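[job 0412] stage=fold_complex status=start
inputs:
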Amino acid sequence: MGSKEPLLDSRDFSPCAVRIRVRGQVQGVGFRPFVYRLALELELSGWVLNDADGVEIEAQGDGAALETLLSRLKNDAPDLAQVDEVSAVSVEVLPRLGFAILESRSGHAHTGITPDAAICPACLSEIFDPANRRYRYPFTNCTHCGPRYTITRHLPYDRPNTSMAKFALCPACRREYDDPLDRRFHAQPNACAVCGPRLTLLEKDGQLIESDDPIAETVRRLRAGQILAIKGIGGFHLMCDARNAETVARLRQRKQREGKPFAVMLAGIASIAPWVICGESERQLLEARERPIVLLQKLPGCDAAMPGVAPGMAELGVLLPYAPLHYLLFHEAAGRPTGTAWLAAPHALALVCTSANPGGEPLVTDNAEALRRLSAIADAFVMHDREIVVGCDDSVVRVHKKAPSPLMGEGWGEGERAATPLPNPLPQGERGQTALARVGFIRRARGYTPRAIKLPRAGRSVLACGGWFKNTICLTRGDEAFVSQHIGDLDNAATCRSLADTVQHLMGVLEIEPEVVVHDLHPDFFSTSFAVGFARQHGLPVFGVQHHHAHIASVMAEHGLAGPILGLTLDGVGLGTDGTAWGGELLRVDGARFERLGHLKELALPGGDRAAREPWRMAASALNALGRDEEIERRFLHSAATAVREMLEKNLNCPTTSSCGRLFDAAAGLLGVREISAFEGQAAMLLEGLAQAHGPVAPMNAGYIMQGSVLNFLPLLERLADTDDAGFGAALFHSTLAHGLAEWVMAARGRTELNEVVLGGGCFLNAVLRVELSRLLNLSPLTLYHAQDVPPNDGGLSLGQAWVAMQEFPC
Amino acid sequence: MTHGSGGRAMAQLIEELFLTAFDNEYLRQMNDQASFQIPAGRMVMATDSHVVSPLFFPGGDIGCLSVHGTINDVAMAGAVPLYLSASFILEEGFPLADLARIVESMANASRQAGVPIVTGDTKVVERNKGDGVFITTTGVGIVPHGVNISGDLARPGDAIIVSGTVGDHGVAILSVRENLSFGTSIQSDTAALHGLVAAMVAAVPGIHVLRDPTRGGLATTLNEIARQSGVGMMLRETNLPIRTEVRAACEFLGLDPLYSANEGKLVVICRQEDADALLEAMRTHPLGQDAALIGEVIEDDHHFVQMETAFGGRRIVDWLTGEQLPRIC
Ligand SMILES: [Fe+3]
Ligand SMILES: [Mg+2]
Ligand SMILES: [Zn+2]
Ligand SMILES: [Zn+2]
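[job 0412] stage=fold_complex status=done
writing structure:
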């Protein structure tokens, strides 16, 4: 409550009246009917309306009832609402009759649009109830669930401004929509089989598949081993039977995706149990309305049951159905049971569920585009006529495991299966934040976008354009930062255009006019030229933020820090202020300024970015640094081995880098884990998997050297070069790396007397390294901060850039 | 070669070297300028300074390169090159024998091209104030009536054609400079293209754009044209003529042949319906035997140059600010 002074005296039974202001995400989430029902229950008179600042209420009745109202507004708010503030002032007692929901007062909205939410339990039971008029209707939703962000063209969030505009409500749906006591009162996407969107089945050539029952036909085809392109909430998925090895291999071949793991959709928790380890935190996350893909530790039988789905990975990405359509597929496969109890039993159907984004281009969202771009991949299409306005990939998360207590003397990740503290599926907001087990983002998109991240203070509106890989953009307004959905890698024109479109769309739905524009220091990123062009066009100041400064600032932003702090970035490469490629940096960050306190010993990148795709080149680089050049050709039978040795000896196209990611590649190459990465980060992921399987080992004695501010792991690499056991080598690498880094940080802490340490950069997605390093650092009285509401990788870069800009341009 | 007072004799020697090698009626007049009649029409003029290391490379040397480079710049307007000037900056101590070789090569290139060097100048700078030799050449030429070729005339739907294999010169230079054990068989493609251009203009007078993708390679040239014309481009990787040795060397080095320099290649943009006639005219000329249709101009307000890769994906062929900086995070 905003005011501290007691506004009402609960002993006073004479009528009083208050005007209440509610701020937060309170529109389009059934807040007014909620207030209406409360008012009826508490026998209050007055009114409620939406306006630019949120919800305004005038309520009159006895003091105790009003007090109850005020507390319940906050505590019993509808699922999708996020109440930031409830404040009240006394007003004159008037003759009032009943309680009314008044028309919205238009104006400059500050309430934002809510993310998309998975179908709610009430709607779920309707679609499995043969007596319900929405039985098996795949577009069922209510004010507590359904699409929001992905169907909204512009504000205010009203049906005509969404892609539901073209569907006229039938009388039955209209009654629900108009009835304040109905769960569907003003549910903008409200629909039924009579008036709403419909499914269509098409052959891959676009020919209509005549079928009385498209859902039954879809399941029949999935079971027959077909690959289906299925239009969901944020875009098309490619789905197929995860247990059919031949089909999965065909999907890989058609999608030209070698090795990269697929996620699997299963009916419910019971269906997951045989394949992966799922603790309470994981369960809550899987069932949360955001319905992300959750990475879970595989059980022994998993790979055999789903061959080729996530080869070589220790984890499997799992998600539960979230669109009614998804549920209806499992319902059909289960023989159309009545009610929802069947979901608690295990079901055999497992569907590979991968974004339909051929060639790394953005997710396909449009029907015609799907036919054009997916006809070489899909055997058939499941489409519908509700347009997806904004594409939104599935989010990918993992439960951050708590570092084991140092007193237990344990290594990483032991005994963490049933982490008791609740995860925080709703990172911002009223659900209570827990300090231990937490959601860690790998990709933040559907279900979370465009939820605001609260900043430590307000400032100018910033547009931050991010980097190049896994890009997002960020817009700020006041003390809120809005990080866009995952946009993708800016190496193709379609993704670049999608960046430009996302900026326009987010500016529109958030009603933000940026005042400052920021970008990465790399001159060749599209995000950089876009930022410069945007700033020029709008006459705005624009500047570049160093990549790793932004990584640290991203974590600082969400933890409300301004510095000075110590920042440790373990990353791939990002351009440094000296024009070289950084990536293993110890920084002192203070507001908009930073200082490079130290870095990992540089290694040459023979062939520039090619060395990032070919870990054997980094191994060759390490051998060269160790004076063991002559081994390069013997170890690597690659046709370029001689050339790479020559390049290293002549320093030809061998830019250097202090990157930690490339150190992982070097280790993977030396251990023979992987010579060429099929996808970005594969070598490091395999190395992590090996380390996890091997279990903890003691760090290597003298495995690193601290040369002034430079941390040199060449002794460790030398040892790995002579290690035959890749599992042991991988474990030794992680352990020694963590110890070296911890000692390095501690030394810097001693020098700088800074006791807060922020960890950022893509390498922190590596759970073994993160857990072990955190454990070691926690042995001393430090405060550690990790990325939490955004990914630690480049997906979080834009938030950090924005926070730096806000400090560079204080109001 | 020396500088200062003792240098006078030397300067004389050099002068004579040039006079004998380049010998023509204009130089013989011994004036400080060349004077000549020019035919009626639109005249073009281009200048280029040549700095290359090493000075001698497989397929050529700085001498012929400096003649070809400027002739090509003139020819890219569709013009007939007429006269050249040459200016030398020599570093004290530069071996006279090398100079003689360079000058001989220039003279041959000029004679073969039929474009005389009609005026010139030489300066000698102190040791360590130059890099052996720098050569600046300037050329003038006349554009045939009815020909209008310019970088801003590419239109959506137009065909993009390249006259032969790309990336040869850059890789050839690199492999000798760095004394690489691979890529040694690669020769520079340095050549004067005005003959090819004349044949092309004769076949298709309505050519829209002509350009020689020298420094920065094909990628940079196409990006320049895309921006100048306000269009986008879509290239097909499988259609790009690239020598196997060049492709392999680039793969080893982690370089993209599209950014590697060419000194005897041109890229031409014309209406789609003229493409066949143009390709035929090009392929009958010795310098255009490997001419290939590599893509088309498309509408694009971002002016992206894109490429359909051999795997069916699409990637942006960036306009790089400088060198190929690492970016993979
Ligand atoms: Fe990064
Ligand atoms: Mg020039
Ligand atoms: Zn619902
Ligand atoms: Zn209806």
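[job 0412] summary: Chain A touches chain B through 56 residues (CB under 8 Å).
[job 0412] exit 0
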